[in-house]
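S., here's the first fold you wanted:
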Amino acid sequence: ISWARRSEQDVSAEAEPKARELGDVRQPVGRTEPALETFEQHDDQAASEKGMRAVEQDHVDVQCVLAAFDDPRSDRQRQQRTGRVNKTSGSLNTDPDDHDPASSLVPPDIRVLVGDGRAAAHPGRLSADDVLVVRDLVCAADDVSLYARIVGELRAARAAGATECAWASWKDGCHLISRAPDASPTYLAVLRRVKEYFGIVDDGSAYVRFNWYADGADWKPLHHDTAAFSQRRSGKQNITVAVSLGGEREAVFRSCQHGTRAYLPQPNGAAYSFGNGINVNWKHGINALAPDRQAGHMGRISIIVWGFSTCGDAGHDEDSELIPAPSAFQQPCLQFQRGHCTYGERCKFL
């Protein structure tokens, strides 16, 4: 217990400098009330030594537990774990093939991981079939001040004459986007936090989209990201990240092969990511709200980042070649046709 309490204090101490560095994008994590007494708080030397002996005793007890062997199964039963089990009796809930341990050694259709939003960066590796969910990445779920600040900063920039900050309709009017979110300092701080946590290489290959679901009626239809059918994009991008601010909405993944749906609620301050395998084999979107739930919804900002993560798998997914590209990708975009493409040298039609 004392170890756990000390750990919470350590986490809080580590989080405070990070919060200051991010410009209050991430509030300090940890207890706000006085921590309960721990061994380190004893002023008396004898009490301190007694406490340390207790910790050492706990350590010895753990080692004893790990060293003990009290498995009641016979040698034959334990050996059966490494090979196929011959199930002779009828079983209504388990197929014979499922008794073979090798049946579990297959890649998943989708693997959901949970990240620690208090960490400076995700410490592990991410495969192409992983979905990583991180709560409280940029703020606590009950603190919607970041949402209000970003919307307010973009409105102020537009009022000051920055016409490029005007909201634009997207996906046939399903929601809005901003083509110039850089006018919001808070947005830039959130973007830095996302790139830091997910290890996204900041070499110009990353793309960002700023979506605003202005009210409860806005939503996002199911779709693949461009990297699923663009070899140029897939060679430079191995991750999609979405961070949510404002009202909670539900991300949906639908299997292209089976039609299976997986729903991931996205509270304020949370983020999720997925690799190229998920992008190819699953469509994703944001579920619509039922009409009786739309009224009073505060709206939601989602900041989408496509890029190359040092945590993720590299390489082009061969399955992506099976996905037919939309007809729009077979012809130059309207900007290129009009002679003022904003992608410059990155334009794929050059």
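And the second, which I think is the more interesting of the pair:
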Amino acid sequence: MIQKKSDFPGKVGFWSGEKFHESVLRVESSVRLSDGRPLRKRVADAYRPAFQDISLRMPTQTLLIALDGVDFNSCRLAQAAGAAPYLEELSERLLTRPIPFEPTSSDDAMWATFQYGAGLGEHGRYFWKRDDLSRKDAFRYCDFGEEHLTPFWLEEVFAQKNIAIFDLPKMRLAKPQRGFHLANWLVHGRYGTEGATSSPPEIAVHVRNRFGEPPPSPCGTSKKSFSEAEIETFVGHLLQSIDMKLSAATHYLFQDSWDIFMTSFKELHCASHALWEHLPNEPEAFISSPFHRLFQATDKAVEKLIKIAGPNCKVCLFSPSGMSANSSVTHLAEGILLEAGKQTTPGLQRLIKGEPYHIVPYNENSLAVRIRWRSRKDALCSALVKFMSQLTLEGNKPVFERPLVSQKVWAGPAAKQLPDLVFPLRAGLGRPETLYTATGETITGEATALRAGNHFGDGFCYLSPAFHEVLPGPEIRLEDLGRAVLSV
């Protein structure tokens, strides 16, 4: 099929090889944006994203694309292997900045930091489940209790901005004053069980009916390995997901003149969790890996969206964290805390009843702990930090990085919702089956199956030079990114 606009004076559309399909705009009265304006919709048989006439587009001031969970080193490897030529072009003509990684952060925490423009101590979301302090050993789910927090796009200074939040991950649904918000469609780790939701709600209905439901994905499983057939099926579903997101995002880019249009691609995040062991270290081997096709498809999708947005559109392309081989001591956690309780000072043991510590939900590559006895919190924190710092592997190698104490590291009104102590694992730790205490005791346990890859290392950002004044430093804090990009 080729574009044949010039053969049909006064008409715009595409030539299918058999007939000319005229592109028609009409008002779809049943679908309206949050400020009441009707959503302009192209008739279904004329909609073909690959052949949309770019002269029809309405100007988009800023395009923000999140490449969720895309590791910078893997991205550079894909560029060297020829799988991501457009991303390589962007790296050469845009500003490249690291996004520092907090070693205890789950992606749940990172996306809350981005949405609210606030640190962990201010928003309080550490994991997709969190401690419910009103009930012992019970947990809240997802973004429950965040209704009092304000996403950066709802700040008064941006009230007149026309904003599309088109399916960013792990976002609490929050209606812009102008525009719309779609959530939980094609994202990694959807919150809740409802599937795609939106404000206004008609957007999600339209997206699900027209573009479909998410293909299946095994990225949340702890399967040790996948067969070639399973990998092929998995990659096929991820490629389908990229096409669906590109088609839908293209459709909505054409619907209005956006001050900012935000969207994301989650497929390399899913692949990195499940297939990290299939990611080679050399460009020559990269070509035959499953990541080659995924980077190719993502690269082409990014290129199409940026070109549709137009040459004057400012671009922000980012990933909030890197990825690495996964590590865990989950299978040893109960034994670790049991031994830690035994080795508290005799004075503390007389003052408390039962076990002093308990594990709270956490990302695999760290250990998160809450103190049961709040009246002795400081003393118990100090005792546990000392015990954990002396835990070693065979050969006297330490297990944990420097521990983080919430009340010291994450200041803010929501710090009490966070674990009291977080112990990041040493990089490359793997899944040890034996640990040694300072007193010569051993803690043993059989390693369980685990996702191959996990969040680790700095994220990155490609930025149009226009953003240099609002983000001038050598690195970008995630809590500053959204507000700064929208302000230009």
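Why I say that: Residues 1-29, 41-52 have pLDDT under 50 and may be disordered. The two ends are 39 Å apart (CA to CA).

Talk tomorrow,
H.
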